[in-house]
Design goal:
This protein has 172 residues and is α+β, with helices and mostly antiparallel strands. It folds into 2 domains: 105 residues, no CATH class; 44 residues, no CATH class. The protein contains 7 helices and 8 strands; from the N terminus they run αββαββαβαββαβαα. Helix 1 crosses helix 6.
């Protein structure tokens, strides 16, 4: 098994590139359901993105995402993977974050020139879901492809087996 100290510089460089690419992915406008949208709220998620290491037995694991105690941890996962549609009102998203987002964005109803009711937005998100943008997965894959052959072989052999791209779940 490799020791972290032997490869720390390479892994730090790779981690920095992945996070920079993920931040760029979050800033990029994209077409979702026929509309050009920007998934940046206040930019807090972009600022909170980081990477790190932990050991599991003798194995080195590198993780990408937000810190465990970050206030945007759940938000990061929703933006990455999305939210599935669910007709059950008991499982719809919480009102408070949506209300804060609507106040920040100053969302107006074009027909009535007044603030859209939070309840309608919660219902819409609950029924239609949210499309994920895979900002971290895409960043990791792009930077991994750009890395040299020697680095890719090392990463597959020592680290890639249990790379973490999402809060508490292992991607296999």
């Amino acid at each position: 098994m490799a020791k972290l100290a032997d490869y720390k510089e390479l892994l730090d460089e790779f981690g920095g590139r992945v996070i920079a690419r993920a931040q760029a992915n979050l800033r990029r406008k994209r077409q979702i359901r026929g509309r050009s949208v920007n998934r940046v709220y206040k930019g807090t998620l972009q600022k909170e993105l980081t990477w790190g290491y932990f050991k599991k037995g003798s194995q080195i694991l590198q993780w990408f995402g937000v810190k465990p105690n970050s206030p945007v941890r759940d938000y990061a996962d929703v933006i990455e993977k999305g939210r599935r549609p669910d007709p059950n009102p008991a499982t719809w998203p919480p009102r408070a974050p949506i209300s804060a987002w609507m106040r920040y964005k100053k969302l107006f109803d074009p027909n009535k020139s007044e603030y859209i009711q939070v309840t309608k937005m919660v219902e819409s998100i609950g029924r239609r879901g949210i499309v994920g943008i895979n900002y971290m997965r895409d960043a990791f894959q792009d930077e991994f492809r750009k890395s040299g052959k020697e680095f890719r072989l090392f990463y597959r052999k020592e680290i890639f087996k249990q790379a973490r791209l999402k809060a508490d779940k292992y991607i296999k």
